[in-house]
Amino acid sequence: QMYKVFVKEIPIILSTEKKIGKGYTSIPLKEVKFKKLINQINNGELLYVNIYHKNAEKLEKFLREKLPVVEAGGGLVYNSKKEILFIRRNSKWDLPKGKVENGESYEEAAVRETIEETGVQDLEVRRFLTKTYHVFKRNDKFKLKITYWFEMFSDYTGPLIPEPSEGIKKVRWKNFEKSQKALQDSYENIKLLFPKEYLIPHPNDRIS
After folding, report:
1. For 196-206, what is the mean pLDDT?
2. Are 10 and 44 in contact (CB under 8 A)?
3. Where are the alpha helices (DSSP H) in 148-207?
4. What is the pLDDT of residue 27?
5. CA angle, 173 as apex, 167 and 176 as ends, to 5°?
6. What does the alpha-carbon distance between residue 113 and residue 125 come to, in Å, rounded to a whole number?
7. In terms of Cα–Cα distance, which of 179, 188, 6 is closest to 86?
8. E strand map for the chain
9. Cα–Cα separations (whole angstroms), residue 35 to 64, 122, 141
């Protein structure tokens, strides 16, 4: 069991193994000062970190205790041409996602946000994919965003409408090659959702 928690684009690994690879600083869970760790990564003092504990459930519990959690839902949407729905935000290609509102399930939030951000209709949820973890700063406080991702399908061929209030500049269906290209200009946690053949190996990759 392993979690990758992204700080900027650098993963903090939380795992049940003490040794996960060369160049990793391994820290037992009970000795971790999490906010200090985030600051060290932000300042470029630390790069590869592995926080370990033999009990995998303790790892996520630890995360949730250390930082206020924002929960979100998102969609990896395919159409009948096997194209994938991408949004362009903050000069990067991303996937539609957003905060879970009161009384919503993760799945409902993922569907609602995908419709709001892209204008796509007739979404069918196929399966739950995974959760991703991302540390961000809001009003000078660190928060942990946990996003629940769902694979979805739509044969919608109508206009795609970016949601300007969310800073979305473009919405595009992308075929395999264009998706590969988009992922090189995207975020690390988005790459975790894609089948391996979409990912062009990067020379600096330490861990798969």
Report:
1. 72
2. no
3. 176-183, 188-191
4. 95
5. 125
6. 13
7. 179
8. 2-7, 10-15, 25-28, 49-52, 69-78, 84-89, 92-94, 97-99, 124-138, 141-153, 168-174
9. 13, 42, 10
| CA pair distance 52, 13, nearest whole angstrom | 8
Give the per-residue pLDDT at 208. Answer: 46
pLDDT tens-digit map of 29-56: 999 999 999 999 999 998 899 999 999 9
Please state, in angstroms and rounded to a whole number, the distance separating the CA atoms of residues 1 and 27: 16
Alpha-carbon gap, residue 68 to 108, rounded angstroms: 22
Cα–Cα distances (Å) from 130 to 6, 71, 99, in that order, read 15, 13, 16
Give the per-residue pLDDT at 202. Answer: 62
What SS3 class is residue 85? Answer: strand
Residue 32 near residue 25, CB atoms below 8 Å: no
d(CA 96, CA 77): 9
